[in-house]
């Protein structure tokens, strides 16, 4: 069994033993101290923009998969709290979603309709740049998995094995390069709203 260095932040394995709340609380705390955020999520809506019902459906899968204590309500409250910082005090947020994120079904049609409506409204939020990469867009880099970059100094990557925090400058630079190569494939503004509207019409 591996152990973290004494001064390292607790990992998912440690935090999840007490439920989803402690894991999710690390993110609003991190967003609060971040001035410039960029994030990429290929197949689900970014946690920054999730509705409570959508977040609840996502965290239900986490609880069931890992067998963690069922504190979904606390996890949802912490997960959705990060949205309060959008447009606050000059913070900037640039989020890229894969078009698949508009269709991956969490919670059923009603939950998805509300979530897609939230996304469509979010295209007009001050301080937020929301791009969607169409499924047929030509890519300049392998799409890979989702990641979040905080002030170009820290990257958070999540997966089945838990979360990884990356602060090594060279590795952070690779994720920033990946984001820069993904960005030209995305559409913004009305074109992004059109993709969301099409997805809404099918729910």
Can you offer a commentary on this structure?
With 203 residues, this protein is an alpha/beta fold. It has a single domain (12-201), classed as Endonuclease, Chain A (2-Layer Sandwich). Helices cover 41% and strands 17% of the residues. Strand 4 (147-150) and strand 5 form a beta hairpin. Helix 5 (109-122) runs antiparallel to helix 7 (189-201). The model is unreliable at 1-10 (pLDDT under 50).
Element layout with pairings:
Elements: H1 12-16, H2 20-32, E1 36-41, H3 52-66, H4 72-81, E2 92-98, H5 109-122, E3 128-133, E4 147-150, E5 154-159, E6 162-166, H6 169-182, H7 189-201
Parallel strand pairs: 1-2, 2-3
Antiparallel strand pairs: 1-4, 4-5, 5-6
């Amino acid at each position: 069994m591996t152990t973290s260095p004494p001064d390292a932040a607790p990992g998912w394995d440690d935090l999840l033993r007490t439920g989803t709340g402690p894991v999710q609380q690390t993110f609003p705390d991190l967003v609060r101290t971040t001035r410039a955020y960029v994030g990429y999520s290929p197949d689900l809506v970014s946690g920054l923009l999730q509705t409570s019902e959508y977040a609840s459906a996502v965290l239900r899968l986490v609880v069931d998969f890992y067998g963690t204590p069922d504190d979904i309500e606390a996890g949802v409250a912490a997960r959705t709290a990060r949205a309060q910082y959008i447009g606050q005090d000059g913070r900037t947020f640039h989020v890229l979603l894969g078009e698949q994120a508009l269709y991956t079904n969490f919670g059923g049609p009603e939950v998805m309709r509300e979530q897609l409506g939230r996304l469509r409204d979010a295209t007009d939020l001050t301080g937020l740049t929301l791009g969607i990469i169409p499924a047929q867009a030509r890519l300049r880099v392998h799409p890979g998995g989702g990641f979040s970059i905080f002030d170009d100094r820290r990257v958070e990557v999540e997966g089945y094995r838990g979360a990884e925090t990356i602060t090594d400058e060279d590795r952070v630079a690779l994720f920033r390069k990946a984001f820069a190569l993904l960005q030209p494939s995305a559409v913004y503004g009305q074109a992004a709203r059109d993709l969301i509207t099409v997805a809404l019409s099918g729910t």
